[in-house]
Amino acid sequence: MEQFVKEYLSIIKLEKNLSDNTIFSYKNDLMKLLDFFEKLNIIDYSEINSETLINYFSSIKNEGLSNSTIARYISAFKGFFKFLLKNGYITKNPMTKIPSVKKKKNLPDVLSFQEIELILNSAESDDIRGRRDKALLELFYSSGLRISELINLTVNNVFIKEEMVRVLGKGSKERLVPVGSSALSCIKDYLLYSRPHLENKITSENILFLNVRGRKLSRMGVWKIVDFYVKKSGIKKDIHPHTFRHSFATHLIEGGADLRSVQEMLGHSDISTTQIYTHIDNDFVKQEHHDHHPRGKMD
Q: Beta partners for 207?
């Protein structure tokens, strides 16, 4: 049974061009399902029916999973059983009677411009790590990169003169993203005075942001950097690296940027993903009215 999972994951990785993180999540979801089948002594996919899968979803409800996680499970299973049916491994698809789950749209947390300024100003740039951290945070906010895009950025993909960075996004899609003058200045400072001290000719592989061992920063390394400067700035919000990306998009739209341009900068394949930031902008406008209009507050 496990062999079919491996075959399915290999196919969707090639055909759908999904990210490694999505493939990893689908694999975990499917392996959990196989564990459930094993406990029931099911050794053949032809033994599985809708009731079996309904029982599985009932069993995981107690784990306190969010609707979005259950929706991902259903998506992974629907694709998998469709693959089994198409290839003649089963004669009936047991997922056809499994209803979809509506994902609740949670608006992402966003920092105000003043809060961004506090965080960026808390990063001192007078030593090796400080210059690196300042450049990293400035670029995060200036270009709205995903954390995976930031840590995989190479020196060759920073075009100082053109004021752009070339990013390898989801599905290995390349895009060019503008960089603001403040971030460019910090990157130049880092490249000149800090990165040469961090670089290791064997391990650095031309990666832009390096740790103290001359290797690529890990995702956790970036989380720790962000957390350190958020705490240092005195901001009490629960902030993570992706908050910089959300803030970047929201501030652009607040400033009147075209939605298509923001979509291009963020690397969204579907503009509906970008449109969530218009909702954030509307909430911001309503809050401004509530706070500042003489008859905006309810008694």
A: 154
